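Objective 1b of the project was to move from sequence-level analysis to a structural picture of ligand recognition. The entry below was assembled by the postdoctoral researcher (A.K.) and checked by the PI before modelling. It contains the amino acid sequence of the target and the SMILES of the bound compound, zinc ion.
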Amino acid sequence: MSFASDAKNEMCKVMPQNSCCQKAECYGLLLFGRSFSKSSVCMVTENAAAARCLALLAAQSIGVIADVRSVLSHRKENKNTFTITIEGDNQRQMIQEQFGHTFDELNLRIRRSNLPNECCVSAFLRGAFLCCGSVTDPNKDYHLEFVAPYHNLAKDLVTLLEVCGLDLQPGLTNRKGSFVVYIKGSERVTDLLAFLGAQAAAMELMQIKMLKEVRNSVNRKTNFETANLDKTASAAAKQLLAIQRIVETTGLGELPEELQELAELRRQNPDMSLRELGQILEPPLSRSGVNHRLQRIVDFAEQLPDRS
Ligand SMILES: [Zn+2]
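Corresponding predicted holo structure:
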């Protein structure tokens, strides 16, 4: 099961209480379908629950019997595709009258009179999402979209999403002749999923986001520590090389007295931290004191003449 189909299944469990909302959801399911005209009213989905939901709402809210057919699609990994059609001129006429469309419109638009109350907006948007929406697996991206068949319909949907009381900042783009209305960002997608009735999906998205953040911060920390370790190791290597060079040319005895003991100590303890080296010196020396002296040893080695 994908995240999107889980979300849709969850939304389908919500049967709106108010009859105004039942009708609004049915309207969303039909309006964004494959066709919404005098000769054909048809919705196609891969989601069985969405197909059932439409059939139920059509019967309950407007008294229309939908015809549901399923076809096993071999092209799409043996997924079932459901085609829900409203057969019969008289039934389609009932839809036309119920939703106030003339069915000879050049531009299919959302008729706001079909969302009479504030409560109906979420039901209508849920219907639209069940019909033409999808949401990306939050492990990959925070993206939710509706694919609308007409530009003006997509624009109306953007407007509705803008005024539904959430800060969604919907975008609109064109893809293969369809109009894609999209929402981006973990919080916006979470808010909209919850608004559409998919609380569990919204919660899952938040949890995935949290896990990702924890994982990223652990990775950042690990990278930081590795980088520091590298720095320590390469500094120690530099010091060891310098000491080796002094040993081979002048001998450690040529170093100023206060550096001799430290050079010997470093030679014997290549892995020791500066703090640890400082603690075994007599008298003990601070970390920065050790660092300073080691730097002087490196400087001393660098100004030695080349061996060749
Ligand atoms: Zn309502």
